[in-house]
Amino acid sequence: MLLVIDIGNTNTMIGVFDGENLKSRFRVATNLKKTSDELVATLFNMLVIKNIDIDSIEDSIISCVVPDVLYNWQSANRKLFQREAIIVNASTPTFLDIAYDNPKEVGADRIVDCVAAYSKYGGPIVVIDMGTAITFDVVTEDKKYLGGSIAPGIRIAQDGLFGSTAKLPKIRLSVPDSAIGRDTSSSINAGIIFGYIGMIDKIIEVIEDELVEKYNIKREDIRVVSTGGFSELISNESKYIDVIEHDLMLDGLRIIYESIKGK
Description:
It contains 7 helices and 11 strands. By secondary structure, it is an alpha/beta fold.
């Protein structure tokens, strides 16, 4: 079986694949202070809880956007499985033609998302990952990664509002019933959710306009895929998002691993 680890700014997603089947997945907080020994304990305990035999893990692949924690995760993998993990970065060979001005600036998470989305749906495709940051990435039908947009994520907006005001409460976000809140909590919820739906749809609209005008792509051929922690909350209300893929990053890591190993 294959262990895949996606280290994000806020959370780390871990999955175990048996072939193409995602046998199990779990989420832990990304913690800069955890030692490699603590990460060994975390991995070991989670695998035991999920009834996965440690000895059944044949290989590991890691994507990371937090360089300060990568070494400890590599060390933990080495201690637990006695082997080196494959690390995905901008230099990792994939079928994508990276058209970024400086390909080394493209985050590993964006590459993995695009590999998975294109493998599932082909191109042209717009991939939106709603995590700590919201990334918009574009891949053409001929597998060219054009780049995209980056915006602050919903949690950043919520934390900024809560941390910069004296009386506004931190709330649990949900789909609002109305844009006219009748109390402070519902007003904050409406402002954040409707605001982000509007922002995301506007960016998608502008991206699609550029693809039509500059690349002669038919609008009806463009598919929009979303993933990430807030994708369910936002995507169902969006005018343009076609499909939600909860495990896009994990699938992408598996696909890249299989490509590297020639499977």
